[in-house]
Amino acid sequence: MTLREVIAQAEQRAQLLSQKHGELQYVVATSKGWSCSDLLLRLDQPAETGTQAFVEHAAQQLADGYPAEYLTGYAAFCDIVVRVREGVLVPRPETENLVQMAGDFIIEQDRPSPIALDLCSGSGAIALALAARLPQVAVVGLELDAVSVSCSRESALDVGLSERVRFIQGNVLAAWSLALADFRSRTDVIVSNPPYVREQRLLPAHESSPLEPVRALYGGVSGMVFYRRIIAQARDWLRPGGLLLLEIDDGMERGILDLCERYGLQGGRWLPDLRGLPRYAEARRAE
User: Fold this and answer.
1) Are 236 and 106 in the same domain?
2) SS3 call for 221
3) What pLDDT does residue 49 have?
4) What is the model's pLDDT at position 144?
5) Helices in the chain by DSSP H: which ranges?
6) Residue 57 shares a structural domain with residue 100
7) CA atoms of 31 and 27, how far apart (whole Å)
8) Do residue 155 and residue 255 come from a single domain?
9) Residue 135 within a domain
10) Closest Cα partner for 95 from 269, 247, 283, 281?
């Protein structure tokens, strides 16, 4: 059988949805160390021994809800690749805009040796992508989940950024004084994509990717648990003129901007995603 026939047969047997066919091809290519172009060139060649069993198993896992990134062990984000495995939330494309906005701010400020904090850093994608874009920046990620911290540190070594990017295991909802004491009033940018799915949206969010960790999604009944803590402490960790940058869910923007004002941050505003819905919020510490 050709590789094309093996893949088609696996898709049929697993009853794999058509929108996941590309994911199966990606998993097959990655397992061989091929690019997508390499795969296309080999589709009509005879499949190697053992390929059929692997492809059928991968197709069934995808049909059962495994993200393709869990099967390959890696996720592409901005211009880097980070490690992921079960228990680690796969970084989303819309989160890449946080890296762009944080990077633009740092470039605009043009300060020597800027510092960024990535709170609820998860896979470490934001921290690593920001450091990869800007060789002058040092980044610290704070994350409670041990598996995510382990993946982040491995990724930092993979991409040669372990000297400038550090990941600390700690609870964002607790006091930051111990974990982040060295950065009080010195941070140029605090960036965070915290768990923000509110209770009424949790079930459909979980059903869309059932094997990803619920704890990385759920932000409490209102979705605001992490935002309250981050915004309440942000002013003490930002330098004068420093920026707080958040990914948010639509419908939360007013509450988040009210919190920013309450805790002494200025210039609060929300920004839309490609659909025009509120997806990001920012505010600054006064100069």
Assistant:
1) yes
2) coil
3) 87
4) 96
5) 3-13, 21-32, 36-42, 51-63, 68-72, 96-109, 125-133, 146-158, 199-208, 225-237, 253-262
6) no
7) 6
8) yes
9) yes
10) 247
Residue 147 · residue 122 · CB < 8 Å = no
Residue of 260, 256, 240 whose CA lies nearest to 248: 256
* d(C-alpha 195, C-alpha 28), whole Å: 32
Q: Which residue has tokens 């979705």?
A: 223
- Domains in the chain: how many in total? 2
Two tokens, residue 88:
């680690």
Asked if 252 and 278 touch (Cβ cutoff 8 Å), the reply is yes
The two tokens of residue 231 are 């915004």
Instruction: Please list, residue by residue across 137-167, b when 16 or more beta carbons sit within 10 angstroms of its beta carbon and e when fewer do.
Output: bbbbbbbbbeebbbbbbbbbeebebbebbbb
Radius of gyration of the chain (CA): 21
Considering the domain boundaries, does residue 77 fall inside one? no
Give CA angle at 165 (164, 167), nearest 5°.
Answer: 150
Token couple for 233: 């402490």
- Beta strand pairing call for 265-272 and 138-143: unpaired
Element (H, E) at 115: strand 115-119
SS3 assignment, position 208? helix
In a domain, 47, yes or no: yes
What tokens were used for 3?
């590789």
Helix axes 125-133, 146-158, angle to 10 degrees: 20
All residue ranges of the chain with pLDDT < 50 are none
Quick check: 102 and 189 in contact, CB under 8 A? yes
Pick from 77, 82, 95, 157: nearest CA to 123: 82
Residues 23 and 145 in one domain: no
Residue with tokens 């002013």: 235
Structure confidence at residue 177 (pLDDT): 87
Half-sphere exposure of 51 (CA within 13 A, CB side): 24
Its pTM surpasses 0.85: yes
Tokens of 274: 């490609």
User: Which residue type is seen at 30?
Assistant: T
